[in-house]
């Protein structure tokens, strides 16, 4: 009986996944006013991470390090989108008034790490082109 209790406990423990957000992927060219899927990229991690919310924005050129620029969207992630080891899609867009050219697309993710729920704000960014059509090819932020 004791062995089966240990087995059930171990199965429950190892059945829980722990994942961390590792970056974002967005189309390499985005048409102002178009919608597109932003993908939140994840990977296995050594402890649980409660991802709370994400905000995204664009800034002309290289932007300002650590800043979103013009905020274009924000949303709650919560338990359903935390510790998930698959890409997480989110339909979003940029304003139709966005001028064409190179921009920095940035995401800021607020998360709580481990048993102590240590809070972090992590930013990811990619350079994209604002152009005449939204591309099907994506660019991915680097860790």
Protein architecture, described:
With 143 residues, the protein is mainly beta. It has one domain (18-135): Macroglobulin (MG2) domain (Immunoglobulin-like, Sandwich), CATH 2.60.40. It is 10% helix and 52% strand. The strands form two sheets. The protein has a five-stranded mixed sheet, with no helix packed on it. Strands 6-3-1-9 form a four-stranded antiparallel sheet, with no helix packed on it. The protein is elongated and about 45 Å long. The N and C termini lie far apart (47 Å). Mean pLDDT is 90; it is low at 3-14. Keywords: Signal. Residues 1-19 form the signal peptide. Pfam families: Nis1.
Describe, in short, the structure shown.
By secondary structure, the protein is mostly beta strands. The protein is 10% helix and 52% strand. Mean pLDDT is 90; it is low at 3-14.
Q: What attributes characterize this protein structure?
A:
disordered N terminus, 5-stranded mixed sheet, 52% strand, mainly beta, signal, Nis1, 143 residues, Immunoglobulin-like, 9 strands, single chain, 4-stranded antiparallel sheet
